[in-house]
Amino acid sequence: MLKVGELATRAGLTVRTLHHYDSLGLLRPSARSDAGYRLYNRDDVARLQQIQALRAFGLKLGDIGAYLDSPAGSPLAIVERQLAELERQIREAAQMRTQLLHLRSRLARGEQPDLSTWLTTLEHMTMYEHYFSQEELARLPLYQNREAQLEWQELVRTAQSLKDSGTDPASNEATTFAERWLRCVERDSGGDPDFVLRLTTMAARDAAGEQEMRMSPELLDYMRRAMAEMRFKVYGRFLPQETVERMRQHELAHSDAWIVLANEIRGCMAGDPDARSDEAKALARRWFGMFTDMVGDDPEVVAQFRKASATEPLLRIGTGIGDDVIAFLRNAMQNMHAHERRTRY
């Protein structure tokens, strides 16, 4: 058993952090000493490892508890996610090493590398390299188009001005601007939902990305709210007002969780396109569980939501959720129901 101070030192955390996890119910010590000190056993340490891993993936503390209680939150599933992330980093490091070896070789021979060599090395160091392969970067309009990059700088300045002036994200001015923002996202991602999702993740997680695009976390949150309000106005033409308000409250609480879940689904799709694995079924259950929390389970309301999503392109732009994701989730649910029928009879 480890005392709280010992665990904090070994984990590279502060005692205050462990106390905070305890207060949130995320990590409660299994025992206390006669003197009242928190004592942590092996299972507690394993849970702490999972908590820290999920934080590194970008999940908020408020969502981690529910995630750990889901099938996708098993120790094996989390370690597999960590390994996949580590393997991605290894591939990127190998690419960077190759480029640096080439650069070192030229410098050692007394050569002066040309501009393109230095630019290639610099590109390997940018934030985009953490999310896109070189082949994908060649197909990413935002990365290739200098005019688009300059336009995005202007968009960010406009967004900052709206925020600084106190413009309500739900105002017509803000939601009209949000529509322009989303249309630029669609254009500069080539309309690829996977690219949209990775750009969104990059902006949400990567501090270097925020610096390069001059977007603070506060500004990013402002634009998320404005885009959400724009969509709520569209949904308002199809859904009861109480449902729209329910969606608004859900968005405030779970916007990051949707991004994390969508990334997990796309990762699972790559290795299990037919959605037959237990992981795929668990992801589908989480997805439809969150959907029910957002919209409710009234059949008429759900039908109207689906009608809105099918007939209003603005509702899908910038979400990173394409028809391929929806088809994958439906296949996962069908496979799960088919398995349940077989085991029942």
Number of strands: 3
- The total count of helices amounts to 17
What order do the helices and strands follow? EHHEEHHHHHHHHHHHHHHH
Query: Into which percentage range does the β-strand content fall?
Result: under 5%
Helix content: over 70%
- What global shape is seen? globular
Q: Report the uncertain regions.
A: 207-212
Classify the oligomer: single chain
Main sheet specs: 3 strands, antiparallel
Q: What would you report as the Rg, rounded to the nearest angstrom? A: 23 Å
Mean pLDDT: 82
Strand line-up in the sheet with most strands: 1-3-2
Span between termini:
47 Å
Structural class: mainly alpha
Q: Number of domains in the coordinates? A: 3
Using brief descriptors, characterize the structure shown.
Multidrug-efflux Transporter Regulator, Chain: A, Domain 2; 345 residues; mainly alpha; globular; three-stranded antiparallel β-sheet; 2% strand
Task: Please sum up the structure shown.
With about 350 residues, the protein is mainly alpha-helical.
